[in-house]
What does this fold into?
Amino acid sequence: MNTDDKNCKCESVKVAERIGSVKIESRLHECSNGASFLGRHEGLDLPVVVRFLPREIRADAARYKKITRELQRLGRIRNPHLAGILDRGEHDGYPYVVTEFVEGIPLSDRIEQQRLSEAEAFSLLLPVAEALAELWANGFVYRNLSPYVIQIQSSGSAKLDLTLLSCAHMDVKYKKYLTECLAPYWSPEERRGGPVDLSADMWSFGATLYEALTGKQVPEPSAQSASTRRTADPKALVASLHEGTRELVMKLLDPEPENRFMSGDAFLIALKSVQATITSPVRMIAPTPLYSDETQALPALRKPFDVGDVIGNARLIKRLAAGAFGVVYQARHLALDVDVAVKLLPVESGLRDPSMIEMFLREARTAARIRHKNVIGMYEAGEQDGQHYLIMEFAPGGTVAERLFTHGGKLPLDEALHVIESTARGLAAAQELNIVHRDIKPQNLMYDRDGEVKIADLGLAKRLLPKDSRGTVRSSLAADQITMQFEAGTIFGTPGYIAPEMAVEPQNVDTRADLYSLGVTAYQLLTGKLPFEGKSAMELMMKHVLEIPEEPRVLDAAIPEDVNAIVMKMMAKRPEQRYQSARDVLQDLEALQTAAAA
It folds into this structure.
């Protein structure tokens, strides 16, 4: 073995070793561009991949600086269909990156079993296209897209594994290694070794879609026509394909980049337009989960952290707020070079009531599973010298409750609808994972610097058991549940926003409870009042159970009838009479916008 090979294989990394917050479990693979290990992030309690780069990268200062900047930018991208970067650092001279482990079955395995219907192919690949478009908007080209890096998760949705993107292609040996498996998915310009842009990813997407629809790889070009050929017509293999599908595939696989779509927006619009013409039912094959939750020991104590201290990967800059569930600081993430928020659980609270620690960590583990622009993202969770902490996305715009205060108690119609729609989108992402927030209210909705609304404070969140679990401990662990112990008489949530079933049977709530709380929030945003008032928490909750509120239009006749109807449907007393999902709410909101624009 030569020295270079040894450097790439990271032989100093051992199973059961801890790299930062990650405990290494096994080696995944190695190549000339480094080695990857499977591990478990002990703070977030998630499986992760630790990707080590060769030591010699450090010797090339310009290259290493470019890689570092690229990773910092990648760490800021939070797309639910793209594996995220959680950390980066250096171990024994090896630069490394910690990314989400994408658990599932590769799309390539699914295609090998049976080619996909048009409906299934578009359902799986449209979210991947949206992830690519977000990468393009941030200046990245994926370059490694193929059915091998698209994983079908247990939810049935697809997720794109993360490569080091253009950095990986700086290494000639690594590109030679990739050629063996990825050449059928590389654009003509990539094969020629020329410059590439987002249109190269479009070609790879077209090759992946072609294979999904036909069960066959795009035919290899002949030596004479490699740069000028057009690909084989997919309808020659599957005569039942819609003409729109055929035209889309052929455009994506055009050998000339300028003949493909000129922008990510045009690419997505075309995909959605073709998908809208397809009505076949969708079938998904779900993989079996590989991991189970594990308990964690509580460590020892130290003096309180304050401004200037470093905890985890963040330096505390400014104290923002304090409450029963912790102290919040603005901080700077040292590895990703981005502003973050750090929440510290008061040490005495954890000592007095250990369940506070579980609730505190639940916020991190829940947020880490919901990767969506309308949910506060989680970077890290852990314990340092007895202090439990969370490092999360920073939302400097304050809460919706604060905005209500500065606007005299209610919001203009357009802004109120923006808050309702954004919250519904975040809840839809949570509902896909069977997660109930259980405390939706203006105080838990935050604005980022661009005015986007994000759901925060997931400490009361609960993940529901799957319908086929039979309630066993083993099945709960196998499904990677976020669990909570209920004590007799314990009710979770805020009385002014609580769903009737949460006040009566808190152990039996489902995701529709969040829609009720969103309805109450919408009521307040539009009217400046809560639907019910009471002298005690119990009186207030019983009004939610028993009384019908005045309709918003009774309090403000300027509220449109359609908006009034949406709010009242969300606030129906019986869950089966409400919207059945956040996506149903979004559908009505979108119809409202379409009608207003007509």
